[in-house]
Amino acid sequence: MKNLLKLAIILTAILLISACKQSVDTPEEVAETFLNHITKKEYAEAKTYGTESTGKMIDLIESFTKMDGEELDEEIKEPVYEDIKAVIDGETAIVTYKADGLEEKINMVLQDGKWLVDMRKEDSSGDEIKQIQETEEEYENLVTEEDSVLLDEVAK
Predict the structure, then answer these.
(1) How far apart are CA 76 and CA 100, in angstroms?
(2) Distance CA 2, CA 86 (A)
(3) What is the mean pLDDT of residues 65-87?
(4) Do 87 and 155 have their domain in common?
(5) Strand locations in the chain (E)
(6) Does residue 79 share a domain with residue 107?
(7) What predicted TM-score, i.e. pTM, was given to this entire model?
(8) 102-121, pLDDT tens digit by residue?
(9) Partners of 117 in the β-ladder
(10) What is the pLDDT of residues 127-144, one digit of tens each?
(11) CATH code assigned at 50
């Protein structure tokens, strides 16, 4: 009986210690890690630092970087993220940073003790939404033009 009691006390102590050691990464750390994954086109890894809506936005970003199943091989200069700061308000935060001299922001939420990037289409600025819509239209036009050429060739 004494051994059982000792075992229960040891297990409880281990659980308490491990619960206390769980560190919540800061919003700044999560945002920087997320941005680095996006820059490197590591979309699956980036999703682990975001909410469900962020995952959907990442899927959209990823779909624009692929055409006909092949990734675009653009030379992208890796930005330098500077002046990363967070303003925390309860379970939300806004992280601001500079990338190549331009000030940007990322919305964050605290879920299950973890800070996550919270990207939503409605949070995008009008310019970003317009750019997404233009890119969608260009892609649709490209696919339509290619389909027309193929159909013309088949018809001959």
Answers:
(1) 12
(2) 51
(3) 68
(4) no
(5) 66-67, 70-71, 81-89, 92-99, 102-111, 114-117
(6) yes
(7) 0.61
(8) 899 999 999 999 999 998 87
(9) 50, 108
(10) 444 555 555 566 566 555
(11) 3.10.450
